[in-house]
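1st attempt posting a full record on here, be nice pls
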Amino acid sequence: MYASREDIGYDFGDGSKVGSKPIKPNANIDGGWAWMIVLSSFFVHILVMGSQMALGILNMEWLEEFNQSRGLTAWVSSLSMGITLIVGPFIGLFISMCGCRTTAIMGGILNALGWILSAYASNVPYLFLTFGVTAGIGSGMVYLPAVVMVGQYFHKRRALAQGLSTTGTGFGAFLMTALLKYLCTEFGWRNAVFIQGAISLNLCACGALMRPLSPKDVREKYGVRSSSADKQAKALSHSAETGKSNGALGEEVEKKEEPTNEEGLGSVQHEGAGGRARSGRNMHALRILKAVSQLTVTVRRGFAMWSSSYFGAASLFTNRVFVAFVIWALFAYSSFVIPFIHLPEIVKQYNLSSQNNVFPLTSIIAIVHIFGKVILGIISDLPCISTWNVFLMANFTLVSCILTLPLMHAYISLAVLCALIGFSSGYFSLMPVVTEDLVGTKHLANAYGIIICANGISALLGPPFAGWIYDITQKYDFSFYISGLLYMVGIVFLLIQPCIQRRRLREKPKEETQA
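the predicted structure (as tokens):
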């Protein structure tokens, strides 16, 4: 039932085949430093996604502080969640140019700045800019590298590794809900937000742990060395040798196919060598020119790699199963986010605050979410189990719970449904695995950036829509029903498109035989 990139006959030109002759893998693949990457990603999920899952606490504080409508106030949380994911394709560009480590460190600084500036908010639109946009972009710059690095470092235990790292979302939602509730009670929401901004600076340390793999190690992850991959490695090493030759004074440029800007740099440095023999005045300017030229080459190469994933013959959108995956993502995420944002208000509406204060429903989702990710990851890594089938079953369970939740008015029944929501939403740990199976490791950053961008649009529009429906009907029932039905539409796309694609593959040899 699962259609991987081999099943659908889709090729990005990397020439890699799973059944190719294996070579000796890097020790850090599926072990060694790979587990430090999992630890780093785990803390990123605690500080980024966990904090966002706890925004229901701040949402209630903002309602009391600014006395605005629920729909308008919910936009603050939605912007933060949505922008974190929507910027995914553009963060893919940063990763192509700067690498995961640099991108994550810059994101950690920006995220902390957004939290700290939000402590001085005087109105809701101010929070749109600081908390929604600034902190949201910073979160996105850390989140995508954390997921991509785990995908690069693991092959045999990908689902388990992604499951362990993304359990940080569940731990974070549980810990951050308790922490923000305590800080808001003891110090007020402004000081709570300021303290959270200081804590978020730890994202920079998480980014520093993201040691990049060499292109050779990435290919060794699959145990293959394709001819096209060898050509790419030769081209990269050739470019690196060109950069080193800039320091060899008086050396002539021997290869005609080198980039023109590096040829110019070599000639300028050759002239500068003679000038240094006479005087050392131009050395500083030459170093700056060299750095600028190398930066230009890096940016051009990164932009070319990024743009090729979206446009042209090798575009990701020529993969129809991937397109169906994107359509699913447009509807899926809001169904998970809406309960987290509006459950505190639903509890108040049903007069269940006393029971909820003992054990919050959002904490139940968060705790079971942890076990769901790990258990689903272990099951998916079993050789006899299809990751795609596990992914679909979890989706069916989650959408059923979303459609059933408005019918429950007792704390026990709501707690059971929240536990099921938490467990089934563990499929989030399988999303990078499914994406990588569809497009390969080389395109994972850009492909997963598109997926989380679609998730971000869903998260951005979902909670305000639920708040708007509540302002009209004074109930959240219809918002759950509508989001659940849209979610079901996305699941139908996931079911239909792989079947159509596989039927075409079966019919294609028959047509060629008849011709």
